[in-house]
Amino acid sequence: MQRTVSMLVADDSHVVQQIFIDAARASKLPLRISLRIMDETAFTLLSSGNIDLAFIDVHMPELSGIEAFWAARKQGIRTFVTVMSNPPSPKRWKWRVS
C-alpha cells in the first residue's frame, strides 16, 4: 500500500488551486491536498513538518512565499517546496508574434 503524500498549495488564485486539484485527480496518486492563501494558517501548516510537498506563490496578500519558505527552513523543516509566481498581467505585456 502506498503512503499518502501531503501536498500544500498556497496561492490566492482559485484558478491555480483548481489546476492543482485537477492534476492531482488525474494522477491517481495518493495525495492529500491542503489549499490555502498564504497566511498564518498556511505557514502553520507548512511549519508543522507534516507536509511532504508544497507549492507556494511568491506574491501573497499577507505573507510572501519566500518569507514562509525561509521561516520554515530556519525551523528545520525540509519539505520539498516549489515557489511559484504568476506572470504580470497581460495588459503589461508587449506581445510579439514570431
Description:
The protein has 98 residues and is of the alpha/beta class. The protein is built from three helices and four strands. The chain has helices at residues 14-27, 40-47, 65-74, and strands spanning 5-10, 31-36, 53-57, 80-84. Strands 2-1-3-4 form a four-stranded parallel sheet, sandwiched between helices. It is globular.
Overall spatial form: globular
Tally of contiguous helical segments: 3
* C-alpha-based Rg, rounded: 15 Å
Number of DSSP-assigned strands? 4
List the helices and strands and how they pair.
Blueprint: E1 5-10, H1 14-27, E2 31-36, H2 40-47, E3 53-57, H3 65-74, E4 80-84
Short structural summary:
The chain is 33% helix and 22% strand.
Entry keywords:
98 residues, alpha/beta, four-stranded parallel beta sheet, 4 strands, globular, disordered C terminus
